[in-house]
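In the design runs reported in the main text, the only information available to the sequence generator was the tokenized backbone. The following block is the verbatim input for one such run; it is reproduced so that readers can re-run the procedure and compare outputs position by position.
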């Protein structure tokens, strides 16, 4: 390995989509870790070309994210602009002769046979091999997949897992900024309409329940355009579009992406139900894990703890679970929280685990940021 960060000229980095939610989180993390010092950075925009760029920008103005010539000047491009942009620009840029490294938060290129999924605590060697082989497309994986693999890194490395049945509790922010607002507006909508009964401690609770249920089912003014149904005071067991065999796309991603990250040939089974819940940020997952052989919770917990510096093991008691194992506790942190560990009563070769992590940090921005570091250092 050569460390070329001090010796070679700085790589030119094109950053696209810095104003969106993932882009802003990535920008913040790169600032915190002083990553921009490794690059000569140029910011690109699809809608605000020529306007002021973030202070890290080499030329202070936003460049045109549709200009193949300007993009082609970059050694590496990181995009948080979304899948439609990737599908529109990536093929044209490659056809234009650009051979630089494309780093993407969107799913569009994930399952291309020539792309590498980046989650370095799990697949640093695979990323290294890919860089050495000249692979040029690197993609962050689906947020729930990254968070699940980070939670199970220890047992996966020890090879004790046969399959995982995952049930997700995905926060509104997984849908985007407007989805977060819709959840909060829904909460406000219900409170405003029923505050007399809500605030009256002696009020008729069954009447309140009836009125709210009626609003959830019938009120066309309930803010529900983004999710397609009311989320506040509700949950939605469907995320993204349908694929085959009754799965949603979000559910399908779990197995194909997990196996691609780990360099396995679909030998790790992962399937379950993806559910949108009224958490604002951070995705949770209840995992039922089929072990290759029975193992006590203590032995399994030791494997969980023996993984990486971001894993936070939460003891299986009420106090610590309510304090630490929640979206509220995980949000805005890099902690991968894992708890509720116990063998299932009816089958000792099945382990019960609950995990929660910030899907904008480890679930989206952080693997890309860390890949950029690995790229400049390889
Ligand atoms: N597909 C995720 C969600 C977004 O809808 O929650 C994070 O990758």
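Verbatim output:
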């Amino acid at each position: 390995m050569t460390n070329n960060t001090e010796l070679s000229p700085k790589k030119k980095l094109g950053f696209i989509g810095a104003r969106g939610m993932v882009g802003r989180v990535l920008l913040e993390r790169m600032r915190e870790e002083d990553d921009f010092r490794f690059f000569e950075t140029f910011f690109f925009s699809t809608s605000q070309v020529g306007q002021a760029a973030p202070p890290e920008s080499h030329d202070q103005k936003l460049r045109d994210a549709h200009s193949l010539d300007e993009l082609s000047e970059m050694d590496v491009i990181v995009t948080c602009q979304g899948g439609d942009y990737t599908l529109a620009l990536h093929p044209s840029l490659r056809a234009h002769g650009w051979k630089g490294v494309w780093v993407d938060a969107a799913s569009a290129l994930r399952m291309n046979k020539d792309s590498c999924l980046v989650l370095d605590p799990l697949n640093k060697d695979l990323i290294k091999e890919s860089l050495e082989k000249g692979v040029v497309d690197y993609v962050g994986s689906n947020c729930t997949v990254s968070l699940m693999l980070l939670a199970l890194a220890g047992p996966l490395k020890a090879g004790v897992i046969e399959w995982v049945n995952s049930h997700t509790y995905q926060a509104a922010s997984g849908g985007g900024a407007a989805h977060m607002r819709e959840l909060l507006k829904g909460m406000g909508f219900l409170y405003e309409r029923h505050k007399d009964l809500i605030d009256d401690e002696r009020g008729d609770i069954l009447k309140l329940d009836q009125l709210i249920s009626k609003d959830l089912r019938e009120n066309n003014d309930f803010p529900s355009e983004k999710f397609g149904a009311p989320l506040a005071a509700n949950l939605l067991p469907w995320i993204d579009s349908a694929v085959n065999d009754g799965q949603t796309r979000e559910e399908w991603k779990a197995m194909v992406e997990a196996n691609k990250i780990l360099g396995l040939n679909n030998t790790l089974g992962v399937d379950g139900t993806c559910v949108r819940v009224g958490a604002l940020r951070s995705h949770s997952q209840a995992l039922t894990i089929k072990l290759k052989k029975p193992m006590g919770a203590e032995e399994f917990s030791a494997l969980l703890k023996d993984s990486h510096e971001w894993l936070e093991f939460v003891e299986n008691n009420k106090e610590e679970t309510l304090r630490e194992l929640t979206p509220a506790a995980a949000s805005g942190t890099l902690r991968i929280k894992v708890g509720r560990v116990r063998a299932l009563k009816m089958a000792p070769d099945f382990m019960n685990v609950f995990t929660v992590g910030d899907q904008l940090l480890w679930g989206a921005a952080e693997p890309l940021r860390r890949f950029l570091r690995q790229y400049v250092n390889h």
